[in-house]
């Protein structure tokens, strides 16, 4: 169990920046996730930590030990690949034992460790199976066992669930989290799936175009995004452009371009925002925080889209010059139809203000 | 705060070296050195030789001199033979592919096995059996002569048409292989879709099937053209002296080395041009078939008359394919010198096979070829695998150059490779460790090494490409060193590819004739040259026994490769 410090790391491929000036400290024992759309640099960063790429600039430290240009085989990491990368010519046990053989453990030690880890991932009966005789979920667990059996200082997971079907993905997610907390190993997890990131991580780093957009706990990232990219990327939201009209103590009054006035709370805004009258801001409103009927910040609009999902009813409502995504929890209420008018209200606490 | 003195990446010179960005160039330097020494340098020597003379261009002026048209005529004949060969091979190969893939008729199974027999014939042995069968004193012409009591043989295979027939027989397989692969990939649903849209039989053929086959036909045409241009054995045996390869051979044996160099340069120019066109075409071609599961549907030949016709045709086809091997076996048992004007040899003996293993003078060439083939193939394994690994896995500037340097010897006619080596190594130089290589044991293994490096290279890189890089990375992340990963993961997983290429290279070295005939030294005569010599001293029996031995060896290798690749063979060619 080691911490990982990434100091001012940049990686260029030719003239293209894969990652720019990354500065990051992952604590020992933490479950840390790199989250972002494809091409954002999350896999590049992971591969630099693994040692498959060397940074163009900057340093990577495990605890206080500089590993920037250390070969991957000397880093004592465990890595699970997107396609599992199991050795097709070996059995389950041979795959798991590979790292132990490299470390020159005795035969009896290897057998004991392999048996134990195989139990941990619920594959006790499968030791002599060939890899191609396993299902996707089982292969995934072999890959995890193979990475964990060497007792790595750091466990790296590169989109390990993306090749599984939806149901298995959920099961495996819980499984990985259980094993990780049981062993307490520092874990770095790469994914583009925010559900995975939110449900598993201690902290998340959101990346875009090789830059860090925000680092924080799942709640911080969801409730207090520090910029428009994060607000838009994590969960669904309505982003509405407005200008600050008035500041009264803790309250802020903003006016949208079409003249609609909304009131929110000063503390519900991103840390970089200065609250000067006349400043342009973006209001982020989560669809689930909009309620039907009158209340704080009441507005009306025309329904242009209705979708019934069972748990909820999703509407798209056209109000003045912007449209709102609205999600109403289904409590056997009457479904509205396309073309009908609807009255909505948004609690003042549910308005979140972002800068440019 | 940072304990830099503990930092292993700066710990010692070795780790500092291996983690440097430049380390990859140290790794690939030997590859470039070898290719430079034995491909580029010899080629360059020929190049300079071709420009030596009264004035720089005098050799080229002589070549294109209208007054003595031998050379231009040779160039023209070579191109003429090649074009006709391409056309004949295409007709035979594509027709065979269609018949065997799309129709079911009596004798289809045996025919579809035998259709690849020509691949098992080494060039020299193939031509040899054709002359025995259809040549001026061959079995068939004589049989007809006796049958009808004629003065002269009524027909015989000779001259340019002899060459073309042999080319067609030995090279239609390139068309057959690519066309049948393409036909297998042709989704029957495409035809059904066309039919449902109202297209008739003819329209389906011209608008759907032929356009889909075009890429494979073009690729094979380029390949066959290249091989025909390089063909040496057939013109030699049928006495067509006015071809480029024969001209080079004659210039060389007459001691006109400058002219040989000039002719080589011109032939190389044609070959390399075709190599470039071929690579360019391969990169841009390909109609991707979008559908996955393709059900084979073969139309059965149903009408009675057609059935009889088909049976007779496939019987004749089978006979044509199998006869060259049968005649070799037959003559290998005949007593040397006893077969003169009879249709078939009269006296038979087992002596030739006995001598293969007991008579020192008879088995010596076999032993020579085995030794030289093994030396060359060992080199091929080391450099072919290393180069393939570098090409597929490493990132460095000059990859394209490496690719070209390896593939060029494959495109160069064997005659040209030989001329290049003569130009480079008939004097001492640094690359030959200050030895004159010509006339020693080493020159032939070197020639085989250069000619067959692409075989190992291509089959290895094909299987490396299929090996997901993350498997190797997984091994590294588990703590394995590069060498340990290579040994335990990469080698076992690419073993079949490497072995297939290696066996092919070994067999080719064992039967190599074209470069051998120009380079061999009398102390180490290779098998193919021995066959040629036996032939010219009328020891047909011994020559054929050698030939049968070669065929057996090739068949064994083909069967092993087939087993290894479980039907997906053909990638190494």
Helices and strands, with pairings:
The complex is a heterodimer of chains A (356) and B (573).
Chain A: E1 4-13, E2 16-26, E3 31-35, H1 42-50, E4 57-62, E5 65-66, E6 77-80, H2 92-102, H3 107-120, H4 136-148, E7 154-158, H5 166-183, E8 186-191, H6 194-200, E9 203-208, E10 211-216, H7 218-223, H8 228-233, E11 238-248, E12 251-256, E13 261-265, E14 280-285, E15 290-292, E16 298-308, E17 312-319, E18 322-329, E19 341-346, E20 352-354
Helix pairs in contact in A: 2-3, 2-4, 3-4
Chain B: H1 13-18, H2 23-50, H3 58-63, H4 70-102, E1 103-104, H5 108-114, H6 123-134, H7 139-148, H8 159-184, H9 188-196, H10 201-230, H11 233-237, H12 244-253, H13 257-284, E2 299-300, H14 304-332, H15 351-358, H16 360-393, H17 399-411, H18 414-425, H19 443-466, H20 469-477, H21 482-511, H22 514-519, H23 527-536, H24 540-565
Parallel strand pairs in B: 1-2
Helix pairs in contact in B: 2-13, 2-17, 2-18, 4-8, 4-10, 4-12, 5-14, 6-14, 8-10, 9-10, 10-13, 12-13, 13-18, 14-24, 15-16, 16-19, 16-21, 16-23, 17-19, 18-19, 19-21, 20-21, 21-24, 23-24
Short account of what is shown:
The complex is a heterodimer of chains A (356) and B (573). Chain A has 356 residues and is an alpha+beta fold. Helix content of chain A is 24%, strand content 36%.
Q: What keyword list fits this structure?
A:
heterodimer; A: alpha+beta; Rossmann fold; OB fold (Dihydrolipoamide Acetyltransferase, E2P); 2 domains; six-stranded mixed sheet; five-stranded antiparallel sheet; B: 573 residues; MetI-like fold; 2 strands; 72% helix; 1% strand; disordered N terminus
């Amino acid at each position: 169990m080691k911490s990982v410090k990434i100091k001012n790391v940049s990686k260029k491929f030719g003239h293209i920046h894969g990652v720019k000036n990354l500065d990051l400290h992952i604590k020992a024992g933490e479950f840390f996730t790199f989250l972002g759309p494809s091409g954002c640099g999350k896999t590049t960063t992971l591969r630099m930590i693994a040692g498959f790429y060397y940074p163009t600039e900057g340093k990577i430290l495990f605890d206080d030990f500089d590993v920037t240009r250390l070969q991957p085989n000397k880093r004592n990491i465990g890595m699970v690949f997107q396609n599992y990368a199991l050795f097709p010519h070996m059995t389950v046990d041979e795959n798991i034992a590979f790292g132990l053989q490299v470390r020159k453990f005795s035969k009896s030690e290897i057998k004991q460790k392999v048996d134990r880890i195989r139990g941990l991932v619920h594959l006790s009966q499968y030791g002599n199976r060939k890899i191609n005789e396993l299902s996707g979920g089982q292969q995934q667990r072999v890959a995890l066992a193979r990475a964990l059996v060497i007792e790595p200082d750091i466990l790296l997971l590169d989109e390990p669930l993306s090749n599984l079907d939806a149901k298995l993905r959920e099961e495996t997610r819980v499984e990985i989290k259980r094993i990780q907390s049981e062993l307490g190993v520092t874990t770095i997890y790469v994914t583009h799936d925010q559900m995975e990131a939110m449900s598993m991580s201690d902290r998340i780093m959101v990346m875009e175009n090789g830059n860090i957009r925000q680092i924080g706990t799942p709640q911080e990232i969801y409730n207090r995004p520090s910029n428009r990219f994060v607000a838009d990327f994590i969960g669904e939201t309505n982003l509405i452009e407005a200008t600050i009209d008035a500041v009264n103590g803790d309250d802020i009054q903003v006016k949208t371009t079409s003249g609609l006035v909304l009131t929110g709370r000063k503390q519900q805004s991103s840390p970089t925002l200065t609250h000067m009258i006349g400043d342009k801001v973006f209001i982020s409103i989560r669809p689930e925080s909009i309620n039907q009927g009158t209340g704080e910040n009441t507005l009306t609009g025309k329904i242009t889209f209705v979708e019934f999902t069972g748990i909820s009813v999703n509407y798209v409502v056209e109000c003045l010059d912007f449209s709102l995504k609205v999600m109403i929890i289904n409590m056997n209420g009457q479904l509205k139809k396309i073309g009908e008018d609807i009255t909505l209200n948004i609690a003042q606490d549910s308005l979140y203000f972002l800068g440019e | 705060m940072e304990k830099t003195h503990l930092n292993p990446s700066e710990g010692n010179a070795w780790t500092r070296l291996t983690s440097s960005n430049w380390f990859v160039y140290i790794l690939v330097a030997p590859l470039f050195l070898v290719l430079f020494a034995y491909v580029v340098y010899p080629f360059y020597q020929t190049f300079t030789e071709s420009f030596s003379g009264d004035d720089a261009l005098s050799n080229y002026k002589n070549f294109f001199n209208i007054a003595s048209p031998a050379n231009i005529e040779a160039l023209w004949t070579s191109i003429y033979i090649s074009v006709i060969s391409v056309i004949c091979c295409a007709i035979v190969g594509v027709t065979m592919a269609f018949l065997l893939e799309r129709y079911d008729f009596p004798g289809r199974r045996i025919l579809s096995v035998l259709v690849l027999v020509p691949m098992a014939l080494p060039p020299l042995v193939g031509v040899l059996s054709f002359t025995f069968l259809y040549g001026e004193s061959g079995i068939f012409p004589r049989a007809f002569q006796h049958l009808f009591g004629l003065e002269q043989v009524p027909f015989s295979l000779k001259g340019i048409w002899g060459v073309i027939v042999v080319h067609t027989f030995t090279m239609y397989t390139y068309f057959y292989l690519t066309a049948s692969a393409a036909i297998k990939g042709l989704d029957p649903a495409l035809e059904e879709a066309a039919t449902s849209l109202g297209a008739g039989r003819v329209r389906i053929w011209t608008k759907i099937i032929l356009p889909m086959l075009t890429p494979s036909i073009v690729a094979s045409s380029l390949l066959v053209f290249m091989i025909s241009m390089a063909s040496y054995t057939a013109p030699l045996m049928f006495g067509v002296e006015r071809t480029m390869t024969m001209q080079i051979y004659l210039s060389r044996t007459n001691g006109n080395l400058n002219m040989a160099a000039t002719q080589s340069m011109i032939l190389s120019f044609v070959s390399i041009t075709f190599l470039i066109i071929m690579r360019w075409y391969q990169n841009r071609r390909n109609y991707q078939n979008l559908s996955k599961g393709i059900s084979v549907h073969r139309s059965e030949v149903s009408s009675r008359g057609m059935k009889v016709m088909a049976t007779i045709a496939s019987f004749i086809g089978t006979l044509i394919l199998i006869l060259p091997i049968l005649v070799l076996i037959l003559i290998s048992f005949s007593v040397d010198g006893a077969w003169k004007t009879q249709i078939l040899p009269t006296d038979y003996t087992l002596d030739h096979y006995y001598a293969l293993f007991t008579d020192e003078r008879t088995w010596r060439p076999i032993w020579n070829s085995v030794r030289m083939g093994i030396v060359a193939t060992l080199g091929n394994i080391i450099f072919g695998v290393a180069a393939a690994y570098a090409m597929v896995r490493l990132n460095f500037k000059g990859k394209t150059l490496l690719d070209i340097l390896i593939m060029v010897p494959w495109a160069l006619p064997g005659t040209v490779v030989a001329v290049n080596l003569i130009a480079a190594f008939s004097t001492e130089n640094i690359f030959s460790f200050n030895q004159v290589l010509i006339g020693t044991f080493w020159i032939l293994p070197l020639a085989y090494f250069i000619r067959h490096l692409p075989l190992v290279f291509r089959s290895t890189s094909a299987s490396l490409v299929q090996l997901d890089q993350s498997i190797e990375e997984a091994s590294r992340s588990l703590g394995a060193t590069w060498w340990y990963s290579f040994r335990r993961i990469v080698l076992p997983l690419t073993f079949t590819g490497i072995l297939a290429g290696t066996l092919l290279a070994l067999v080719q070295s064992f039967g190599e004739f074209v470069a051998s005939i120009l380079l061999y030294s009398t102390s180490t005569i290779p098998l193919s040259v021995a066959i040629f010599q036996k032939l010219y001293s009328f020891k047909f029996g011994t020559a054929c026994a050698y030939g049968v031995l070669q065929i057996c060896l090739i068949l064994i290798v083909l069967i092993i490769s087939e087993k290894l690749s479980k039907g997906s063979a053909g990638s190494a060619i």
